């Protein structure tokens, strides 16, 4: 049985504005911000606002709103960070690699011949994250 949603998670706190993030974009459905422990330059998270633990309990209507945004962010990230490709990742439950239990998608710029850094390790400098958020925001043509 899948565990139920627990609002005591860090992304719920970011969504409430209780914890800061390097925000790139926000609309009524989702928030987009930089991953603080990037696996690659420009690693970005897309977090639907609706409460769900992960993909396993997600409402299909929420996924339908996220998919076009995923594509938009992937296209913008490839441009903003001069990437050769993009990996989109999403983890479910601890055994699936999940560490934060609010549904989210990783958009990770990839560079030819450069392996990914370890998942969830090594905090990036906040100045670098702020600059990357700005670059991606510009590419998205979004305003905060
Ligand atoms: P996962 O749940 O395994 O899909 O990954 C959670 C991701 O959230 C990891 O890549 C972390 O680096 C990232 N992360 C954890 N806390 C924060 C935070 N406060 N702001 C931005 N990213 C975070």
Protein model, in words:
- The protein has a single domain, classed as 2-Layer Sandwich (HIT family, subunit A).
- With 144 residues, the protein is an alpha+beta fold.
- The mean pLDDT is 95.
- Strand 1 and strand 2 form a beta hairpin.
- The protein starts with 9 loop residues before the first helix and ends with a helix.
- It has three helices and five strands, in the order αβββαββα.
- The protein binds adenosine monophosphate.
Question: Which fold name corresponds to the CATH topology?
Answer: HIT family, subunit A
Strand content: 15-25%
- N-to-C span: 39 Å
Ligands (ions, cofactors included) = adenosine monophosphate
What would CATH call the class?
Answer: Alpha Beta
| Amount of helix | 25-40%
Widest sheet: strand ordering: 1-2-3-5-4
Number of domain units: 1
Mean pLDDT: 95
CATH superfamily: HIT-like
Count of DSSP-assigned helices = 3
What's the total number of strands? 5
Radius of gyration, in Å, reads 14 Å
CATH architecture: 2-Layer Sandwich
Task: List segments where confidence is low: pLDDT < 50 over at least 5 consecutive residues.
Answer: none
One letter per element, helices H and strands E, the order comes to HEEEHEEH
Shape verdict: globular
Secondary-structure content class: alpha+beta
- Biggest sheet character: 5 strands, antiparallel
Write the layout of secondary structure elements.
Elements: H1 10-16, E1 23-26, E2 30-34, E3 44-48, H2 60-80, E4 85-89, E5 105-110, H3 126-140
Antiparallel strand pairs: 1-2, 2-3, 3-5, 4-5
Helix pairs in contact: 2-3
């Amino acid at each position: 049985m899948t565990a139920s949603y627990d609002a005591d998670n860090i992304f719920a706190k970011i969504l409430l504005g209780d914890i800061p993030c390097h925000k790139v974009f926000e609309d009524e459905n989702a928030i987009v911000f930089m991953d603080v422990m990037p696996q690659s330059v420009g690693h970005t998270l897309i977090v639907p606002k609706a409460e769900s633990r992960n993909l396993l309990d997600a409402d299909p209507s929420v996924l339908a709103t996220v998919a076009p945004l995923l594509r938009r962010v992937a296209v913008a990230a490839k441009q903003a960070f001069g990437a050769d490709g993009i990996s989109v990742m999403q983890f479910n439950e601890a055994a699936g690699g999940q560490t934060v239990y609010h549904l989210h998608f990783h958009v990770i710029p990839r560079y030819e011949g450069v392996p990914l850094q370890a998942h969830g390790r090594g905090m990036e400098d906040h100045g670098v994250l702020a600059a990357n958020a700005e670059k991606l925001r510009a590419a998205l043509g979004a305003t905060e």
